[in-house]
Amino acid sequence: MKALLVVSLVLVFAFTALPLQTSKPIPPGIREADKLPGPADVPPLNQSRTNHPAPGLMRDQALELAGLARSIPADVSQVSNGTLPKDMSEKLKRIEKLSKALRGEISR
Q1: CA angle centred on 100, ends 94 and 101, rounded to 5°
Q2: pTM for this structure?
Q3: Quick check: is 61 in a domain?
Q4: Alpha-carbon distance 108 to 102, whole Å?
Q5: 39-85 pLDDT, tens per residue?
Q6: Domain, as residue range, for 57
Q7: Residue 40 per-residue DSSP state
Q8: Burial (Cβ within 10 Å: 0-12, 13-18, ≥19) of residue 25
Q9: DSSP element (H, E) containing 62
Q10: Which one, of 94, 74, 96, lies nearest residue 85 by Cα?
Q11: Residue 37 included in any domain
């Protein structure tokens, strides 16, 4: 009985260890490549390393935005009188673009 138990245990261990011996060897360059930094470890080239908003840029954008916003009521009164100013659409687009840029600077 003991001999049957020993033989069965030896067979079980032999079959469980067999897949470990038949696995493919790892090529030598893979271990070195695992040590190198990946794309997630390298910061993007086009982004600044700091998360602080650029105060000079924000001030310039805010001043331009304020100037454009001051001119809109006069344009709206012209529209009420039946005249459409040529640059009103461009001003509104620029206001939108500046506000998005400022919002992006603040949320960085």
Answers
A1: 90
A2: 0.51
A3: yes
A4: 10
A5: 666 666 666 556 677 888 899 999 999 999 999 999 999 998 889 89
A6: 53-108
A7: T
A8: exposed
A9: helix 55-80
A10: 74
A11: no
Residue 26's alpha-carbon distances to 30, 31, 34, 108, in angstroms, are 7, 8, 12, 43
CA distances to 37, 38, 52, 103 from 31, rounded to whole Å, are: 13, 14, 38, 44
Residue from 92, 90, 99 nearest 58 by CA: 99
8, part of any domain: no
Say which amino acid occupies 73.
P
Distance between CA atoms of residues 91 and 104, nearest Å: 20
**Domains in the chain: how many in total?**
1
Q: Which two tokens stand for residue 79?
A: 């529209």
Residues 6+ apart with CB under 8 A from 88: 72, 75, 79
